[in-house]
Write the C-alpha cells for this entry.
Amino acid sequence: EPEVTQTPSHQVTQMGQEVILRCVPISNHLYFYWYRQILGQKVEFLVSFYNNEISEKSEIFDDQFSVERPDGSNFTLKIRSTKLEDSAMYFCASRELAGTVNEQFFGPGTRLTVL
Amino acid sequence: GNSVTQMEGPVTLSEEAFLTINCTYTATGYPSLFWYVQYPGEGLQLLLKATKADDKGSNKGFEATYRKETTSFHLEKGSVQVSDSAVYFCALNQAGTALIFGKGTTLSVSS
C-alpha cells in the first residue's frame, strides 16, 4: 500500500541553525501539507502546496519557513534559523486532487529538537 | 474561527470495555469531520469520517455520528482491545482546506 515517508525520523539541531525536513508524498497525489505538533499540544497546520506554489498557510508559517518540491518526488520544509520553540513533531501529508476528496494521508513524522 | 475540542486523556480501560471519546466542534457552514488514530511510532491514519449531518462513519468497530444540533462527533466502540491503544484525534475541514485538529486523546487498554 502506498504511503507517505519522512526523513529523518529525529533531528537534533542547535538554535540558529538551518534544518530541512524531507517528505516523499504518495506518487499520484497533488496536494501536499506540513503540520506540526508541539509536545502535549494540538496538531497545527503550517502550509499547503499545490501546482508548485503555496495554496494556504497559517500564521505560524512566517519568513523563517519555506517549502519546496525540488525534484517531482520530494517535498521539503526548511526552517532557516531554528528557535527553541520550533521543537515539535512535524508531519507531512498528501492527498489526491480528485477521488476521495478531503482525505489526507500522513507520514510518520520527524521529531525536531532544538537545543 | 473553526475549532475542535476533545475530552482530556488519558483514558484507561480494560479489554472489552465500552469506549467513548467526546468531540465537539465550532465551525461556520458544514464542515467534514474526521477521526484520526496514531499508533506508537507511526503517522496519523484516518479512522473514519462523515461529510454531512446525521452521517455515521464507521471502521474497525469504531463509530461516530455527525450531530449538527449538538455540534458533536463522539467516537465510540463497543468492546475495545489492547491493540486499540493509541492516540485519537478529532478533526474537521471545509472544502478541502487544512485540517483543524483537537489535542488528541490517549487511550490505554489493558488485558
